[in-house]
Each structure stands twice: as C-alpha cells, then as structure tokens.
Amino acid sequence: MLLNHATLECNAAGPSTLRFQDREDPTAATVDLDLSAEGCPLASHAIRPRLVGKQSGLTPWSGIASEFREYDGLRVATHLEVICHLAEGPFTYFRGELTSFKAVKVMYDCGVIIDSSPAPLQTRHLSAIRLT
C-alpha cells in the first residue's frame, strides 16, 4: 500500500499531476498520476523497461482509469486501459472492466486502510496481452 511505503515521495508535477518516486530506487524511476478536479485518478504515466527480442529498452506507457462508480462508499474506476507508446504507434496492452468490488477494512498499526481481500476483484478481460 502507498500509505505504508516509508521511502515513497510525492510531489506536485503540475496543477493536477502528482509525481511519485521511491527515494531508495537506484534507477530514479518516477510515475506521474493525473487527477480530475474531483481528485479521482484519471491516468498514470511512466517510462518502463520492455523486452524487444533479447534486448531491454525503455518505453513510455500510460494507464487510464474511467467510469467511476461507488462500491461500499469508495469511488472506483470500472474501466482500465494500459497503453505502451511504441515508435510505430500506441499499443493497447490491457483493457478491462471491473464488474464487482468488495472493500474490507483491515487494521494496521498506522491506521485503517482498505484492502480488497479476501473477496477477489471480478473483472472482464477485453483484450489479450501481446508478447514480443
């Protein structure tokens, strides 16, 4: 959980964008999270390693969340999409729809967090993962 991550930094990267970085990560990788006016996460952006043949290369990617619904008092994105931004054009790596969600409160020393277990998330997979 992000709440329990002692070395995670969060800074403003723009008027509606948060940038996350682990202070102890030797690669200095970051993830940007775009928020709506209501504070809902809309998209995340990062540059991640991807295998191309036997070589690893850095590839920009984004994750997009949409169609928020309320489950057990939580606003949850029900449509998710992950896109790799390749030189030849964008490739949708994953597209899915959340069809059910059950939140369970779990107590930790630092306070209450929300966990999705023991009930698994029910999703409908809408596209296949392409392996390169």
Lay out the secondary structure.
Blueprint lengths: L7 E7 L2 E6 L7 E6 L5 E12 L2 E17 L2 E13 L2 E12 L3 E5 L2 E5 L6 E4 L7
Antiparallel strand pairs: 1-2, 2-3, 3-4, 4-5, 5-6, 6-7, 7-10, 8-9
In short:
This protein has 132 residues and is mostly beta strands. It has strands at 8-14, 17-22, 30-35, 41-52, 55-71, 74-86, 89-100, 104-108, 111-115, 122-125. The chain contains no helices and ten strands.
Indicate the percent of residues in helices: under 10%
Individual helix count: 0
Sheet having the most strands: 8 strands, antiparallel
Low-confidence stretches: 109-132
Distance, first to last CA: 30 Å
Radius of gyration: 17 Å
Bin the strand percentage: over 45%
Count the E strands.
10
Q: How are helices and strands ordered from N to C? A: EEEEEEEEEE
Envelope shape? globular
In order across it, which strands form the biggest sheet?
A: 1-2-3-4-5-6-7-10
Mean pLDDT: 78
How many domains make up the 3D coordinates? 1
Please state the structural category: mainly beta
Verbal overview:
The protein has 132 residues and is mainly β. It has one domain (2-124). It is 0% helix and 66% strand. Strand 4 and strand 5 form a beta hairpin. The chain is globular. The model is unreliable at 109-132 (pLDDT under 50).
Name some characteristics of this structure.
mainly beta; disordered C terminus
